[in-house]
Specification:
The chain has about 375 residues and is an alpha/beta fold. It has 15 helices and 13 strands.
Length: about 375
């Protein structure tokens, strides 16, 4: 039995598909994956990962925007792969992969088609155009799906109105799962690491992780810190993106306290030298970076949106704030940064809660979906 896991754009075979790979492996299902790869320098690098994991990796020319006409080429490539490899299951992900995977799988009469939504583009508070475009299309594509997997409660409830083929089911799984053991413990060189970043050893450090774009909404944290005006609070931003220049300009009055670190490979260490994790996004599915912060015993102040409120329990693991409320963010940051006991309590609560979203639990959830679809 063979499964083709379809996503859209990815660096390398990594954590996004890893729980599904492990689930398939445990069930004796041959695992293949298709994506527009950006991190493989050549075919030899692809062959290396194929041999390492015992999988097949296909390059497909996906474009992130689902309805870009360039995705017609990607559709044809997927059809060609399916016809050649003769899959039993298609497991497609993301709006682009979900659209192309389901259309191609249906055309090629693949027996079972699974769609995993990592955050519907229609959600509470979403722009009306998202509802007008994405909602009706998802309802139509549901008729081509034997199962739909969601990763947060809001999407799970919303998807209950969809009609799947062959009386298919809607499932909820704990995201892609994280290996919580990686983030356990601490580092011995906190002062050295902070000095390397030009952060005082006694400072209170906020951290955000992710692309610097409109959705991540980091600007509200900068505005909140300017309102607080406390030189002992520093803010680390890990990631690059289109809003980097604008955010730096916005930070000028407090530029010595805002640290733009770009892409980092030492996230574990950076989390352990930080005091509070902040995530003011407008939209999330189920944030991996938030789960990593929870596993690192950090209290979290996050936007009160779907996904975030699946993970953070108000006044137990942190605070839930309206995305654009500068007043709400500034009050929450100031209060938590000045209450060490509360920070410790929230961090301990998060560390326990995040175990429900572990890699092990994600793998077991995907295995349940695969078994159910196969049995039907």
């Amino acid at each position: 039995m063979k499964v083709l896991f379809i996503q859209n754009v990815a660096s390398r075979f990594n954590t996004f598909a890893y729980s599904s790979y492990l689930a398939a492996n445990d069930l004796g299902i041959e695992f293949h994956i298709a994506s527009a790869w950006t991190g493989y320098r050549d075919d030899d690098a692809i062959r290396y990962d194929e041999n390492k994991y015992g999988i097949k990796i296909f390059q497909v020319d996906f474009v992130r925007t689902p309805y870009n006409l360039k995705n017609i080429r990607a559709y044809r490539q997927i059809v060609e792969i399916i016809e050649r490899e003769k899959y039993d299951i298609i497991h497609c992900n993301t709006p682009t992969g979900g659209l192309i995977g389901r259309l191609a799988g249906s055309k090629c009469n693949v027996s079972k088609i699974i769609y995993q939504a990592h955050g519907f583009h229609f959600y509470k508070g979403a722009p009306i155009k998202n509802w007008l475009i994405f909602y009706p299309i998802e309802r139509l594509l549901a008729h081509l799906s034997d199962a739909i997997i969601t990763i947060n409660q809001e999407d799970y409830i919303r998807a209950q109105s969809f009609k799947l083929k062959n009386k298919g089911k809607i499932y909820i799984v704990p995201g892609v799962g994280i290996d919580t053991s990686i983030f356990t413990g601490s580092i011995s060189n906190v002062d050295i690491k902070r000095k390397e970043l030009n952060i005082p050893s006694n400072a209170k450090v906020l951290i955000s992780i992710g692309e610097l774009n409109q959705n991540k909404n980091n600007i509200v944290i900068i505005d909140a810190l300017k309102r607080i005006n406390d030189s002992n609070i520093h803010y680390i931003l890990c990631g690059k993106g289109p809003l980097e220049v604008k955010l730096k300009e916005k930070s000028m009055p407090i530029i010595d306290n805002v640290h733009f670190l770009g892409y980092r490979e030492d996230i574990n260490e950076l989390l352990h030298i930080s005091d509070i994790f902040v995530l003011p996004s407008y939209r999330e599915g189920l944030s991996r970076s938030l789960m990593e912060a929870m596993a690192s015993n950090l209290p979290c102040i996050v936007s009160n949106i779907r996904g975030n409120n699946d993970l953070i329990t108000e006044n137990y693991g942190g605070r839930l704030i309206k995305p654009n409320s500068v007043d709400g963010w500034s009050k929450a940051i100031f209060e938590l940064a000045n209450n060490s006991e509360m920070m410790k309590m929230y961090g301990q609560f998060n560390r326990k809660k995040v175990e429900s979203f572990s890699l092990h639990n994600a793998v077991e959830s995907i295995k349940e979906v695969y078994r159910s679809v196969i049995d039907k």
